[in-house]
Design goal:
446 residues; alpha+beta; BirA Bifunctional Protein, domain 2; Rossmann fold; 2 domains; nine-stranded mixed sheet; 14 helices; globular; binds adenosine-5'-triphosphate; binds magnesium ion
Length: 446
């Protein structure tokens, strides 16, 4: 993309309504624009990041054997009356009447709808296990929408639902989700720690939230500092293996890590030595639940088991806050000049800055780099505007592309361009071909 032809409405002033750094940077870098309280338009650059996060979530869910589909945003109230949640959900649910006076709602989550699909089409244990998921907009009429996309009213969520014959099979599905979530967050350049949590209105006993440590997080968390040394890395887990998934769960959840809802000060002291006890704040970027037969019993989602008896299926639901993640990643990765995108989610792979637009050699070298990067499957953002170098650098720093190639007549006379890492500021002079190789190599590992 050439910046002269793109739509990147960066702001000079820091918007005064934004209280936290990710919200400020998302507005300043032209990622979002507020449409109404807690409701945002995703401008082109923000939309690209959102899509990349979504793609990682899809990849990892499909790798785990979970099946993508799409359910609507608007739902009929009838299903929610069956489960009993139409009254329980309260004011967070946006209730709508259609022209015939029928009660509708904008889905805050989809347990009822998916259970209805299941009971209509699945009747035998032979069709299990089954995990269906979708990535769809949700609406929760939050009392205090704030922090931009972190606590919106309309937000994008991945929600998946597992259907299993018994508790053990459903717990394997739970563990599979834990593994796939660890992989997903690491690919986004994030450390998200599973912490024992409270199940709230979804119901059920087993649940973990995934938290990204950040001062601006809304959750208070208590953990053993050893947990921050754990990395999932590139290990190859067989998602069909009960023992492999179980051992990942044990590795990542055996140390003390809880949100304030389940925190137990006495247990914390008993289990964790003084020097490793940490109290901090975190951003919830996902949650997994096992809730057994709560919805299947209420809504008659049963299957015939191996002995011919009809039994309610065991279920769980598993969510990732896709749009919240854009803010969470920025909270975890920025400096005073702007955003620093991890390679896994960056909207463009590299920026090209032409120091002297209109100089024949500089223009030609930039064009050649642009073509070569694109041919290598990378997406460059070429700042081809007739602007001062300082202004171009400031824009690149603000929008946070992890790599910048700077091209100017002086370097070209020596046959080099400059490759700069956004995170460290370190620069290296290389031939254009070597810069290209370096970037291709960096992104081949992402
Ligand atoms: P919270 O405690 O932050 O209100 P929740 O526990 O009610 O969230 P879940 O039902 O677990 O949310 O939804 C799954 C994920 O969706 C959450 O982990 C979070 O990342 C995201 N999410 C929930 N509410 C919002 C919101 N208002 N804006 C943006 N993302 C949200
Ligand atoms: Mg939650």
């Amino acid at each position: 993309m050439r910046l002269s032809r793109y739509f990147l409405p960066v702001l000079k002033e820091t918007p005064s309504e934004a209280q936290i750094v990710s919200h400020r940077l998302m507005l300043r870098a032209g990622l979002i624009k507020q449409a109404a309280a807690g409701i945002y338009s995703w401008l082109p650059l923000g939309y690209k990041v959102l899509r990349r996060i979504e793609q990682i979530v899809h990849d990892e869910q499909i790798r785990a054997g979970h099946i993508p589909m799409l359910m609507p945003t608007l739902q009929s109230a009838d299903l929610w009356r069956e489960s009993g949640r139409y009254d329980d959900y309260g004011e967070e649910m946006l209730r709508i009447k259609d022209r015939h006076g029928r009660d509708m709602l904008y889905g805050p989550t989809n347990e009822e709808l998916i259970t209805d699909i299941f009971r209509a089409h699945v009747g035998s244990y032979r069709d299990l296990p089954l995990t269906l998921y979708h990535i769809q907009w949700k609406f929760r009429d939050e009392i205090r929408p704030r922090f931009g996309v972190m606590r919106g009213r309309e937000f994008l969520m991945k929600d998946g639902y597992n259907f299993d014959i018994d508790r053990d099979a459903a717990l394997h599905a739970y563990n599979r989700h834990l593994v796939s979530y660890l992989r997903s967050y690491e690919r986004m350049g994030l450390q998200a720690i599973p912490m024992r949590a409270d199940s709230g209105p979804i119901g059920g006993d087993d649940t973990h939230e995934f938290l990204v440590l950040a001062e601006t997080g809304e959750s208070e968390v208590f953990y053993d500092s050893q947990i921050t040394d754990l990395r999932f890395g590139d290990r190859d887990v067989d998602y069909d293996s009960v023992s492999q998934c179980q051992s990942v769960l044990e590795e990542f959840t055996s140390r003390y890590a809880r949100t304030d809802e389940t925190h137990d000060e006495a247990a914390f002291h008993a289990q964790v030595p003084d020097a490793r006890r940490r109290q901090a704040r975190g951003i919830e970027v996902g949650q997994i639940f096992y809730f057994g037969t709560k919805y299947s019993e209420a809504m008659g989602a049963t299957v015939v088991n191996a002995t011919g008896a009809r039994v309610p299926v065991h279920m769980g639901s598993h969510g990732i806050g896709v749009s919240r993640l854009v803010g969470a990643i920025i909270e975890a990765s920025h400096d005073d000049r702007g955003i620093i995108w991890p390679e896994g989610v960056t909207p463009f792979h590299a920026g090209i800055v032409n120091l002297k637009q209109g100089d024949a050699a500089a223009d030609a070298a930039c064009e050649a780099l642009y073509t070569a990067l694109s041919a290598a499957g990378l997406e460059p953002l070429y700042d081809d505007r007739d602007e001062r170098a300082g202004a171009k650098f400031a824009t690149m720093d603000l929008i946070g592309l992890p790599w910048r190639i700077t091209v100017g007549p002086r370097g070209l006379a020596k046959g080099v361009v400059e490759l700069t890492a956004r995170r460290t500021g370190d620069s290296e002079e290389l031939s254009p071909a070597a810069a290209l190789d370096r970037l291709a190599q960096i992104y081949s590992g992402v």
